[in-house]
Amino acid sequence: MKNRRRNKNETSNRLAIIGITIVVLCIAFAIHMRSVTLREQAHEYQLQEESLQADIDEQKRLSEELEQKKIYVKTKEFTMEKAREIFGLKLPDEIIIKPDTEK
Length: 103
What we know:
Layout: H1 2-73, H2 76-87
């Protein structure tokens, strides 16, 4: 009778160890898969961050260009240039040469 109980206890202990081992392996596999997913997500976020930083830099450059144009538009030179373009006006000492368009 002792041998039967002993075999029963040994069998149940082995089954418990196998069960615990399987659970630990499943948890380790789940953690590994999650870490792979998180690394991929981090890489995607890094690419997105770089793209957004490039957009920010481009917008800053455009903003600086607009600021320069805003200053230029307020100058007398710009006013005279537009007067020449739109109305064909000229300064008294200027000679305007127009290209021959009949060719």
